[in-house]
Specification:
- The chain has twelve helices and 15 strands.
- An eight-stranded mixed sheet has the order 7-6-3-4-8-14-5-15, with helices on both faces. The chain has a three-stranded mixed sheet with strand order 10-11-12. Strands 1-2 form a two-stranded antiparallel sheet.
- The chain folds into two domains: 351 residues, 3-Layer(aba) Sandwich (Alkaline Phosphatase, subunit A), CATH 3.40.720; 67 residues, no CATH class.
- Helix 3 packs parallel to helix 12.
- The protein is an alpha/beta fold and 457 residues long.
- Helix 1 links the parallel strand 3 and strand 4.
Amino acid sequence: MLFYPLRQETRIFLRLSSSTKHMYRFLVILLINILPINIKAGRTDLSEEKNPSFWNEQARLDIEYNLRRKENKRIAKNVIFFLGDGMGVPTITAGRIRKGQMLGQLGEDFITEMEQFSHLGLAKTYCTDHQTPDSAATATALLCGVKTSFGTIGIDGRASRGNCLSSHGTHVDSILKWAQELGHPVGIVATSRITHASPASAYAHSPDRKWEGYDSINFGEKEVAQGCVDIARQLVLQSPPIDILLGGGRRFFYPTQKPDVANSSLNGTRTDNISLIDDFWKGSRIDHGHHFTQARYALDDYVEFDNTIGQVKRILQDKGVLNDTLLVVTADHSNAFSFGADSARGSNLFGFSTLESLNVSTIDKMPVQIITYGNGPNFPAIRNKTYLDSIDLNDTEYRWPAAIPMVEATHAGEDVAVFAQGPWSHLFIGTMEQHTIAHKMAYAACWGAYKKRRGCK
């Protein structure tokens, strides 16, 4: 078992089988989301950029690297899937700058861990009934290999959201189940609730993502009578059991009369008087910050997510199994987050436009913030000096301005990036349908429908 620190409240375990038959074979789903060319990434001196030879040399090295790159067609003994909830391309770019600046560099030319992966593509995120999807439908596509309806988990598009009876006979298995069928240990590490739509799609089947526990409001006697099981209970009844589980959401496993083990002032939410398990670890999400236009929260979570990717790679390298491990990084969807005010190189993302001629709005003559949201809770009805004086950019809970007022910022519908490294990572290039990612991972590892494909032993 491998152990390493991620952050104070979260620990990740990668369980490696001790058997000879399946030595170092495992699947880990991390839901927290290599260009090794010899350039000076993260520089603080821009003078050399004024010389064309700098750019020409960078391009030459890039081409040389790509010409030397060879396809890895080994059977993937291990698969690690990183899902950054809400980690759209704007978040990746802003996160790159944020991470570089946290290390004392300009940031724009910094290279993150995921950007060092050998192959890159784009995934279309729409679901069967919505142009802009939610985490339930997209996670089902990513982990089960089929697109489905908005708000549903682990079922196909024939079921209707919130309708238990319509979901019978529509269950689809996930890549986690495909790996278990061949005897491989599997794990899920989430910085959200373990019953949240994204991790739940790895093990549960539910016509409504809100059916996380038996609470008599979202899920109760009616649904049980119709043959449905709440998500938390499905997790406990999972057979074979999932080897490693780390995530939040204890309240869905405790009855209302049982105090939480970490905070006795809080009780569980189950109204069926059943206590399912004892303990889980708690964390956070990129997506959570974006929903409340808390960009600092979201981008700092991105940095932690990227650091985790680097730590996992180093562990695999130390164990000598990196070349046998398929690593895939992607997002389920994007968010209504953007940045783009005219600013000088190295500008603080959390600040205002810094170029003198472009640092104020031509409409209201007020300073322009670099980060904005298309919609969300912080809609400035009046932009004046009083409003500006109320802004504290050092406040970690500060909410960036939104163009359209809403209780929460929405998801965005653009394609998301897919980074891959390891066996068969060359399958993850170009623009792809999101559901094909599960199939490509299974193909690489000889799991599920691909266990007897040519080349599998």
